Structure to design on (420 residues):
């Protein structure tokens, strides 16, 4: 019984340790966002509020944008990051939860401009194209290559979104290039005046063919602003998918929480996408995390509302972990009683060799002196067996052995009396 209890205790301790080490997630998560006040930073704050419901602290790291975020993921300096489509991370350094919303490529100009809608004809312009380290700057470089525009054809300025809009309003630049959520605060500010308008591009489909990570979205009249009306007519825009990328070693329970937060924040309908478009695994340009894919495709498990989030997120994983242990433990538990019974019986059986040896010598001698020696040896053996501490269920074996000893003792007494 003690052996069985010990094995059970050890097994439970091993299982508890595995649960503690493998299932309990960290309580802190680091997310690389973007510049303070930008679309990524504001989105990160919404994620922070949702994760806080489960006691998870989201630490937001403000950066220049997607290029910086990709470098942080490659260095394993953050757990997750917002990345713009087209920004790459070295193989094995990141997985994607999925695309989460569209970021249109927006070309802002002053009202009354005379700029051509064909970007290949832009010459001698001052264009703000995002700060170095941002996804905006990387996207403009790819756009310029896609339309065949030489880098030296225009002067490119290293300005952030808010600075670009201010410079455009002040007449310091000819064009502001942005890649941003259509609902970003600085866009609302830009369209709140009559001074700035969207530049419609020609040949959008052709340009998209040269940018394999770009999609085309339609913006209806007045979708951005109704006073003033922006845009004045339905426009097709190039759009990139913003995506949530994570460290491949991120704890599955935290992947679950990030994915559920993404579904809550991005599954609805907005100006650029229909309900259910996001989160999306299509066109994200990097391997998708298995936990995230299953949640996006199948939704949360039946355990979601019954168990703590860290456990519900990993019930299947827990079963895969415990089942092999149970497959070994259950047969072992069936064997343990038999092993224990054998051990208790062996405590008596090991003396049977001596009993048989004494019995054999009794049959071979008629000397009274030798018979007394055998009787003394038999008494000593009987005393040893009687002192065994056996549970009641196993004492019968000892009784049988002592009965055998009594039979031999009777034989010795009979032969001794004849010898006299």
């Amino acid at each position: 019984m003690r052996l069985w209890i010990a094995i059970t205790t050890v097994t439970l301790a091993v299982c508890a340790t595995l649960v503690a080490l493998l299932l309990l997630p960290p309580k802190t998560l680091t997310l690389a966002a973007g510049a303070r006040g930008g679309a990524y930073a504001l989105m990160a704050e919404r994620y922070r509020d949702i994760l806080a419901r489960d006691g998870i602290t989201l630490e937001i790291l403000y950066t220049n944008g997607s290029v910086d975020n990709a470098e942080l993921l490659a260095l394993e300096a953050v757990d997750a990051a917002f990345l713009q489509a087209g920004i790459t991370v070295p193989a094995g350094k990141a997985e994607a939860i999925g695309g989460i919303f569209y970021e249109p490529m927006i070309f802002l100009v002053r009202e009354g401009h005379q700029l051509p809608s064909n970007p290949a004809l832009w010459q001698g312009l001052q264009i703000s194209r995002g700060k170095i380290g941002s996804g905006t700057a990387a996207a403009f470089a790819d756009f310029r290559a896609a339309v065949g525009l030489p880098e030296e054809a225009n002067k490119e300025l290293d300005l952030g979104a808010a600075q670009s809009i201010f410079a455009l309003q002040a007449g310091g630049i000819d064009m502001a290039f942005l890649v941003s959520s259509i609902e970003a605060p600085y866009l609302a500010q830009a369209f709140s005046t009559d001074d700035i308008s969207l530049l419609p591009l020609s040949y959008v489909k052709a340009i998209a063919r040269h940018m394999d990570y770009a999609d085309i979205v339609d913006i209806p009249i007045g979708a951005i602003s109704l006073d003033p009306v922006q845009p004045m007519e339905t426009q097709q825009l190039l759009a990139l998918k913003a995506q949530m990328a994570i460290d491949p070693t991120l704890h599955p329970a935290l992947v679950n929480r990030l994915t559920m937060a993404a579904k809550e924040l991005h599954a609805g309908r907005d100006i650029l996408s229909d309900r259910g478009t996001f989160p999306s695994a299509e066109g994200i340009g990097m391997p998708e995390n298995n936990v995230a894919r299953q949640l996006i495709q199948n939704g949360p498990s039946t355990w979601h509302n019954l168990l703590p989030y860290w456990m519900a997120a990993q019930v299947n994983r827990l079963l895969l972990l415990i089942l092999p242990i149970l497959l070994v433990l259950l047969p072992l538990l069936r064997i343990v009683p038999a092993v224990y019974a054998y051990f208790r019986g062996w405590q008596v059986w090991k003396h049977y060799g001596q009993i048989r040896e004494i019995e054999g010598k009794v049959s071979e001698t008629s000397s009274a002196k030798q018979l007394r020696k055998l009787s003394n040896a038999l008494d000593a053996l009987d005393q040893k067996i009687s002192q065994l501490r056996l549970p009641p269920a196993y004492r019968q074996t000892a009784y049988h052995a002592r009965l055998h000893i009594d039979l031999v003792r009777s034989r010795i007494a009979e032969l001794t009396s004849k010898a006299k």
The longest helix spans residues 315-349. The two ends are 51 Å apart (CA to CA).
